[in-house]
């Protein structure tokens, strides 16, 4: 029997360079950001939007709308989207699951219960106040899940992390619901806006806080993901 040569494979589709994808994404983001500055209860022509950005006139009402109201909200939306993407990438590296997201490891639930407690017990109503409780709660929940995932093990098992995250999420979610049911209606409204990601009334201070946090997280995120890989199940 004559040995056969290697079976030829069909030619692979040529993939576009990654840089082209990035450029397309940035272009789409720029168009959407411009639209968010121009579209609203009062439409602003694109020319006035650009003038407000590069030739600001304090006496022009349209310029004030763009610079003082819509620009902070637009920046905050961009920062929030980037932060979610970064968090998802870190979670995927930690759990080795391409579908992982912050809620999988109890981070969302930790932030929620901390915000609810801050609003209910301390009467915090401003985003610039209770956002720090959100950061603290998210961090503590993440640490708790990580410790549970390493319990009685020399390394971190992605499956144990997911199971620990699911348990922590259910526990903290139930606790947040209990606090809300026994609090004033204002706490429910605040939590509803928090959970929905409402941008209404968010000013420069909130956008600045989010931007600084994103920069810090962007620097620490890749290192955290790499560290989790080194200390994972394969070590």
Automatic annotation (TrEMBL):
Alphabetic keyword roster: Cell membrane, Membrane, Transmembrane, Transmembrane helix, Transport
Membrane-spanning ranges: 21-40, 74-91, 103-124, 130-149, 161-185, 205-228
Protein location: Cell membrane
Record bears the keyword Transmembrane helix: yes
Family matches, as Pfam families: FecCD
Gene3D superfamilies: ABC transporter involved in vitamin B12 uptake, BtuC
Protein name (Swiss-Prot/TrEMBL): Transport system permease protein
Record GO terms (molecular function): transmembrane transporter activity
Annotated membrane topology: Multi-pass membrane protein
One Gene Ontology cellular component annotation held by this UniProt entry: plasma membrane
Domain of life assignment: Bacteria
Record-stated family: Belongs to the binding-protein-dependent transport system permease family. FecCD subfamily.
Entry's Gene Ontology BP terms: siderophore-iron import into cell
InterPro entries, A to Z: ABC_BtuC-like (IPR037294), ABC_transptr_permease_BtuC (IPR000522)
């Amino acid at each position: 029997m004559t040995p056969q040569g290697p079976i030829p494979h069909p030619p692979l589709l040529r993939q576009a360079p990654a840089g082209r994808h990035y450029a397309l994404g940035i272009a789409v983001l720029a168009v959407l950001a411009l639209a968010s500055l121009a579209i609203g209860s009062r439409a602003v022509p694109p020319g006035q939007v650009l003038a407000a950005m590069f030739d600001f006139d304090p006496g022009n009402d349209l310029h004030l709308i763009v610079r003082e109201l819509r620009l902070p909200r637009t920046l905050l939306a961009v920062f929030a989207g980037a932060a979610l993407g970064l968090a998802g990438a870190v979670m995927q590296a930690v759990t080795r699951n391409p579908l992982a997201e912050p809620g999988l490891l109890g981070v969302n639930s930790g932030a929620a219960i901390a915000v609810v407690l801050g609003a209910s017990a301390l009467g915090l109503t401003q985003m610039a106040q209770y956002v720090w409780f959100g950061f603290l709660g998210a961090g503590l929940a993440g640490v708790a899940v990580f410790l549970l995932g390493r319990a009685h093990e020399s390394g971190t098992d992605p499956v144990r992390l997911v199971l620990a995250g699911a348990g922590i999420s259910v526990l903290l979610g139930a606790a947040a619901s209990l606090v809300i049911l026994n609090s004033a209606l204002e706490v429910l409204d605040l939590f509803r806006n928090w959970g929905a990601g409402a941008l209404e009334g968010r000013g420069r201070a909130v956008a600045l806080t989010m931007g600084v946090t994103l920069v810090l997280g962007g620097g620490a995120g890749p290192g955290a993901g790499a560290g989790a890989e080194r200390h994972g199940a394969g070590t």
